[in-house]
Amino acid sequence: MTKIAIIGSGTMGRGIAYVAALNGFSVALNDIHSESLKQAENYIKEELIKSEERGYISKDDIERSMNNLTFSLDMNACVEDSELVIEAVLEIMDMKINVFKELDRLCPDYTILATNTSTMSPTEIGAQTSRPDKVIAMHFFNPVHKMKLIEIVKGLDTSKETMEFVKNIGKKMGKETVEVNEFPGFITSRMNCLIGNEAMNMLMEGVASAEDIDKSIKLGLNHPMGPLALADLVGLDTRLRNMEYLHQTLGEKYRPCPLLTKYVKAGKLGVKSGSGFFNYSL
């Protein structure tokens, strides 16, 4: 089996681990916090059970998938012999670069290093390693097991071989892929951030309620989810970091809505905090 290591066991990391293990990959999930790893393990077990109860997978699939997974605080042990490492830490460039420097030191020469960033430059990240030809972005979407797409983004020095390898991994995970030439925000984040930011501006201006803005986009434009609910799902702190990066790199049209900044300062981060543009408290 192809061995994949995943660095970061948060929402995206655990989601990628779930999909990879279910599709037959040997997966090592790493984090610096033992509690995060335990939460990820519980999440994956629960999602597998839900899928079995709904008839999507069998009980044998649950056992096989869990056997494909290991959870460890030891990055070195996780990346040993891995053909692909996927970084899924916060959208903070300095943090990603530090992780990639460590991965470059620990991983075999043949290992491909991928970042799950939704906006940031694989060229800049790859330049901090001795293998920029083997650095690429694999942008998965949340929730990973339901969303069909992976944006595969090649940096300036990413080789054709790396691109083809990663596209094949995506196919084996049951995903559709698109090939993107690096530019800030790629395809989906540029569009999604603009739509979401405008929805926030309309809410701030009193054009309509959050419920009616989302209802209009869902029923009038046939989006499966409203932009405000989607921002809550992504995490308003994550969305703000994305907007700040796009504002810095692409200009004034990506200036974050002041209401978004206010919500983040207030600790209203969306689903994960219990409230954002909508209330998720029990």
UniProtKB/TrEMBL annotation:
Q: Which residues does the UniProt site feature Important for catalytic activity point to? A: 139
InterPro entries tied to this protein: 3-OHacyl-CoA_DH (IPR022694), 3-OHacyl-CoA_DH_NAD-bd (IPR006176), 3HC_DH_C (IPR006108), 6-PGluconate_DH-like_C_sf (IPR008927), 6PGD_dom2 (IPR013328), NAD(P)-bd_dom_sf (IPR036291)
* Every 3-hydroxyacyl-CoA dehydrogenase C-terminal domain range: 185-280
| Keyword Protein transport attached | no
* Gene Ontology terms: biological process: fatty acid metabolic process
Its transmembrane ranges are none
Keywords attached to this Swiss-Prot or TrEMBL record, sorted alphabetically, are: NAD, Oxidoreductase
Question: Which terms does the record give in the GO molecular function aspect?
Answer: NAD+ binding; oxidoreductase activity, acting on the CH-OH group of donors, NAD or NADP as acceptor
Is Oxidoreductase included in the keywords of this UniProt record?
Answer: yes
- Provide the 3-hydroxyacyl-CoA dehydrogenase NAD binding domain boundaries: 3-182
Q: In which pathway does it act?
A: Lipid metabolism; butanoate metabolism
For NAD(+), which residues are the binding ones? Answer: 8-13, 31, 91, 96, 118, 142, 272
Q: Which family does it belong to?
A: Belongs to the 3-hydroxyacyl-CoA dehydrogenase family.
According to UniProt, the name of this protein is 3-hydroxyacyl-CoA dehydrogenase
